[in-house]
Amino acid sequence: MGNFLAGKVVAVTGAGRGIGRAVAVAAAAEGAKVVVNDYGVAVDGASPTSEVAEAVVKEIEAAGGAAVAVADDISTMAGGQRVVDVALSSYGRLDGVVCVAGILRERMLFNMAEEEWDPVLATHLKGTFTVFRAASAVMRKQRAGTLVGFTSGNHQGSVSQANYSAAKGGIISLVRSAALGLDKYGVTANAVAPVARTRMSAGVPTELTEIGEPEDVAAFVVYLLSDAARDAGVTGQVYTVAGPKIALWAQPREVRAAYAEGGGWTPERIAQALPGSVGTDPMPMLARLAAMEAAARAGERPNA
Ligand SMILES: NC(=O)c1ccc[n+]([C@@H]2O[C@H](COP(=O)([O-])OP(=O)(O)OC[C@H]3O[C@@H](n4cnc5c(N)ncnc54)[C@H](O)[C@@H]3O)[C@@H](O)[C@H]2O)c1
């Protein structure tokens, strides 16, 4: 047992399996008391069971740590609130929340049903909001705390997971908004885009060339939850963790601008001026699309 998070109380959603489980176990091993939330569902979000969260609590306790299970659905306001309430009623404070819970419902955009869009947005994006909302009210009063959201490299765009990609992009904007809105209360917010071997990554249609274990991601999240990250001023950031690699994503910013002269823009003036001035910004994933489609036609899993 280490003491990187000694005295802290941390809540982790989706902590029954995969990356969330590794985060909960690592946080407890570093001295945190942990709320283990998991609705215990299949990859597509179906068939909930409370056993998954309880099993991780037993595992943490067996290793000498302290943990409590919450089997609620964090896509509901009540579920998000309960995760926070249980931290307060069990341990008296809340220093960090890590929103890892997620599901997949893959479909091409032109075939996607409302039943595939809504639950994916509800679990990832709203499920981060419900917990951030309840936790930030506590952290604002404490004048300290850490919020961690889980995004994906797929926030850049996805051929067959527009719902998931849109949710993950939304989580980045939510994290940046939390970082901006809570900075003056001493609360930090960051996002992690992991690549790790779990049941979820096993099912993706692309071959992940840089991949590691959930424990690699967990070590990074423990750092984000620590005083060391707060003292280093880490907030509003998006990091990828893939095995031995830690990478920082750029902040969104304007690339180039052009200004209308004399009378403003018309569609004709824009058509004339845009290609040679403001132009376009190459889309890395679009550039790789042809190679990915060729690999898929050859029956291989395309590299991503
Ligand atoms: N594994 C990867 O390579 C990878 C890549 C990019 C992003 N991610 C993201 O990392 C996170 C963890 O992914 P994972 O690979 O560990 O997945 P996983 O399927 O192994 O675990 C996800 C957990 O979330 C739980 N969950 C689902 N809906 C819930 C709800 N409404 N309330 C509470 N719990 C719920 C599930 O029961 C499950 O235990 C997800 O947000 C995922 O999108 C993972």
UniProtKB/TrEMBL annotation:
Similarity-based family: Belongs to the short-chain dehydrogenases/reductases (SDR) family.
Domain of life: Bacteria
Gene3D superfamilies (alphabetical): NAD(P)-binding Rossmann-like Domain
Molecular function GO terms recorded: oxidoreductase activity
Ketoreductase domain: residues covered: 8-198
Key word Oxidoreductase present: yes
Oxidoreductase in keyword set: yes
InterPro entries the UniProt entry points to: KR_dom (IPR057326), NAD(P)-bd_dom_sf (IPR036291), Peroxisomal_Beta-Oxidation (IPR051687), SDR_fam (IPR002347)
Sorted UniProt keywords: Oxidoreductase
UniProt name for this protein: 3-hydroxyacyl-CoA dehydrogenase
PANTHER family named in the record: DEHYDROGENASES, SHORT CHAIN, SCP2 DOMAIN-CONTAINING PROTEIN
